[in-house]
Design a protein that fits this description.
This protein has 8 helices and no strands. By secondary structure, the chain is mainly α. The chain crosses the membrane at residues 27-44, 64-81, 88-109, 115-136, 148-165, 171-193.
Length: 204
């Protein structure tokens, strides 16, 4: 299944970004692994807990922990070279965002929930890992202040739901959503598109 392979790629890339973020905070190896795993599979964990879906993803598939842990350790070893792959990580992260969103939506629908819940769970699956990473590293989550990110997840979730409701073959729905969401995210990165910011200065 294409989503499974993309998911493995996605958690690997997210684990690398988590490990690099932990490195900027000068964490020890254990801390790096924890941040990497939380970044990679945190969104899915939150989704499963909220939906009461047991066992949660990594408990049912412990190989996910092995993959993300290995990605973290490799990142530590190859950290001097990681700066050369910054653009590659951005592209793969965009693909991972849409993949995670689709997986979240599909799983929620399979559990019998409606479109609103499915769309929310898709976004939670897509963006929560990065939020957990930044909170643990004591930073404002990037999803709240950088290029359009959560917006891409929202659009991808609803596009999938609309196409699914039209009765299209699932593979077509997946590919169309992947292509559209991926393209939107790349455009947001290239043109530095951002959601308008709220800047409040308290007045005496």
């Amino acid at each position: 299944m294409i989503l499974h392979h993309l998911y493995i790629l996605g958690i690997t890339v997210e684990a690398i970004t988590g490990a690099l973020k932990a490195g900027t905070k000068k964490m020890d190896v254990f801390g790096v692994i924890i941040i990497a795993c939380a970044t990679a599979i945190g969104g899915g964990n939150i989704r499963d807990v909220l939906l009461g879906n047991h066992p949660i993803s990594w408990v049912g598939h412990p190989e996910y922990i092995v993959i993300t842990t290995c990605a973290a350790l490799i990142t530590i070893l190859l950290s001097p070279f990681m700066k050369y792959f910054h653009r590659v990580f951005l592209v793969l992260d965009a693909l991972g965002l849409v993949t995670f969103t689709i997986i979240g939506v599909r799983m929620t629908l399979a559990l019998g929930h409606g479109f609103i819940v499915a769309s929310i769970m898709g976004v939670i699956t897509g963006v929560s890992g990065g939020v957990i990473r930044d909170v643990l590293c004591r930073d404002i989550p990037l999803v709240f202040q950088k290029e359009v990110y959560a917006g891409v997840s929202i659009v991808s979730a609803w596009l999938f739901l609309i196409l699914h409701a039209q009765g299209l073959p699932e593979i077509s729905v997946i590919l169309i959503t992947l292509g559209t969401g991926f393209s939107l995210r790349l455009l947001a990165i290239y043109y530095n598109l951002e959601v308008p910011k709220f800047n409040y200065t308290q007045m005496d």
